[in-house]
Design brief:
610 residues, mainly alpha, three-stranded antiparallel sheet, two-stranded antiparallel sheet
Length: 610
């Protein structure tokens, strides 16, 4: 073939592979537009709405005003409707809108007692959700999830035993509690309110932590803190001032003391920072404010809490506080990719609506944060395109731009490699396998570098075996390795070498249940390193171009599209983690052939002869 024909093949394959977002992934993106199982699209839709309103000049502040409504009502109502239009239930739409509004500049509370406004209640009412107590709240799903019951139990037991705070209400003379002598005085503001808020949040957070661990979960600190703060703020006067040791009069309220107690109990960092902008938040204030928001929000489902978890992944410290997958370094399935919503809004405001400047900053921090930034940005581009089916706006536009050139280069590079290998006599299976091997070695190198920096140790990892069926024997898991992965690797930690054989079916259960290896302080690190790096490879169903692109090139060069799709999937032993790729590859291959044939027509007239 001539150089021109070569470029036609590559271009046709690239155009076909990117023709529809569905062609890029095995994840069920159409279902995501209706809220089935994930809320990534409702989050991005609401983010588009809020960014649009703020860039138009609407005031997002929550003010102590006598007016029956304020500009924030408009912002919240539109954001709620955007989330609902993407399939979010009212309670989940309220949570999404409140969380995004809060991180976009809205306060959690304003005004007492008339013109009293709370962000969570405002969002719930605009969503038409039902009011309930914090008992309906649940943690994010960490394989399992825990409701707020342990926090309630622990706090109320201490209250009933009169062991939570120093004051026994039985000693108070009449007409003290409930009035200004208590509420706006030393007893209330300086002593009881901060003590009650702080101690209740501590007790509740530790109870949630213990319950999570009792269910065989890692108690990532964010969620015990959030749930405990919400339960606490049901008890403590939410508008109470606290003493000046917390800050100047009027700057800190009871929710801050609750946040402080939860932060201390869970060992959260004092400050957290938004990706891309570096904007700093006081963690105690954030946790306390979300306690207020969550107590009023209604009853979000577990997928609502999963969406909130990913919203918190917009902070640089997300890995430390246990927030979301979408902050990296592992790139998760598309349903989790809403961690860029808050950074995108912040960057758009910083750059006064310049989507290209915002996109450059998003691309920059994604490049720094992920094992495989090419795949991370490609996946981000895919889900942003899906979100645009529901609601277009500056957030999704910036996210698409951030990943567009990276995605196009990734596809083009694979098409070129596939062309050269196929022309050299290699099979389509060999091409797909070579692309997977290339990615494997890249992930090994990047994981070693990033985890070395994260752990402060010299880490080197090399996988020795990645295949299906670590313990099962059925035909399904024999084909798709993501459902029962046999993972073996060599890892070096500061020069100390470990070989891990069959991580998920042997080493992890033995370590967790039997205690094998726990006497070695580095064994947990050896398991952690392999688990993190392996999951980067397991979750590749979000982007299947190592299958679709070779199939497209093979079809253009003469192979039947159906055979091309099947053989490409067979060869891509890592990208074949979950089912579905061969069907997408078949469609991509047929489309590529169609595009190439039209490109190759010598006549300019594309109309059929009369």
């Amino acid at each position: 073939m001539s150089d021109m024909e070569r470029e036609r093949v590559i271009l046709a394959a690239s155009l076909a592979a990117t023709f529809r977002p569905d062609f890029m992934t095995n994840d069920k993106v159409e279902a995501a537009t209706k809220g089935h199982g994930v809320l990534v699209v409702p989050v991005l839709a609401a983010a588009n709405s809020i960014a649009d309103d703020l860039l138009k000049g609407l005031d997002i502040s929550l003010v102590d005003a006598a007016a029956p409504d304020i500009p924030l009502d408009i912002i919240i109502e539109r954001a709620v409707n955007a989330a609902k239009s993407a399939g979010a239930a009212p309670e989940n739409a309220a949570l999404i809108a409140a969380a995004l509004a809060y991180f976009s500049g809205a306060a959690a509370r304003a005004g007492v007692p008339m013109a009293n406004r709370k962000l969570g209640a405002m969002a719930r009412m605009h969503a038409g959700a039902t009011r309930t107590s914090a008992i309906a709240l649940t943690t994010n799903k960490f394989t399992h999830r825990i409701t707020a019951f342990p926090a309630y139990k622990a706090i109320y037991e201490k209250l009933m035993e009169k062991k939570l705070i120093k004051l026994d209400g039985a000693v108070l003379p009449p007409f003290i509690a409930g009035g200004a002598i208590y509420g706006h005085s030393k007893l209330g503001e300086d002593i009881v309110v901060p003590e009650l808020a702080k101690e209740a949040a501590k007790v509740g957070a530790l109870a949630m932590k213990n319950a999570m661990e009792g269910a065989g979960m890692t108690a990532y600190p964010l969620w015990p803190a959030l749930i405990a703060a919400a339960v606490t703020m049901e008890i403590v006067h939410p508008d109470s001032f606290v003493s000046e040791e917390y800050g100047p009069f009027g700057s800190k309220f009871s929710c801050y003391a609750a946040g402080q107690g939860a932060v201390e109990a869970m060992g959260l960092p004092a400050k957290i920072h938004v990706r891309g902008t570096g904007e700093e938040y006081d963690t105690a204030q954030v946790i306390g404010d979300f306690g207020l928001i969550l107590k009023d929000i209604g009853a979000p489902s577990v997928i609502g809490m999963m969406a909130l978890n990913e919203i918190f992944a917009g902070f640089q410290e997300s890995a430390i506080i246990g927030a979301g997958f979408s902050g990296g370094p592992v790139n998760p399935p598309l349903g989790h990719l809403n961690g860029d919503a808050v950074p995108a809004i912040k960057l758009l405001l910083k750059h006064k609506g310049d989507v290209y400047a915002a996109a450059d900053d998003i691309k920059r921090y994604k490049m720094e944060s992920f094992f495989d930034p090419e795949m991370a940005l490609t996946a981000l581009n895919t889900i942003a395109r899906v979100a645009e089916w529901v609601k277009r706006g500056p957030v999704t536009k910036a996210l698409m731009i951030a990943g567009e050139d990276v995605r196009d280069r990734a596809v083009y590079r694979r098409a070129a490699k596939a062309y050269e290998m196929l022309k050299a006599g290699k099979s389509v299976e060999e091409v797909a396998r070579a692309l997977d091997e290339e990615r494997l070695h890249y992930v090994e190198r990047r994981a070693s570098e990033i985890l070395s920096a994260f752990l402060g140790k010299k880490i080197e990892i090399k996988f020795t075996e990645l295949r299906p069926q670590a313990r099962r024997h059925d035909e399904f898991t024999a084909k798709y390795w993501g459902f029962d992965s046999y993972i073996s690797y060599d890892v070096t930690i500061d020069g100390k070498k470990y070989h891990i054989e069959n991580l998920s079916a042997k080493v992890v259960p033995e370590y967790a249940i039997e205690g094998k290896g726990r006497e070695d302080p580095d064994m947990g690190t050896a398991i952690f390193v392999g688990a993190v790096a392996a999951q980067e490879l397991q979750y590749i169903g979000h982007t299947i171009i190592n299958i679709t692109v070779p199939a497209a090139v093979a079809a253009i060069l003469g192979m039947d599209p159906k055979d091309a799709g099947k053989k490409a999937e067979n060869g891509a032993y890592l990208t074949r983690a979950i089912p579905g790729a061969k069907y997408n590859a078949r469609e991509v291959a047929a489309m590529a052939k169609r595009i190439y044939e039209m490109m190759s027509q010598e006549k300019h007239d594309i109309l059929p002869p009369r």
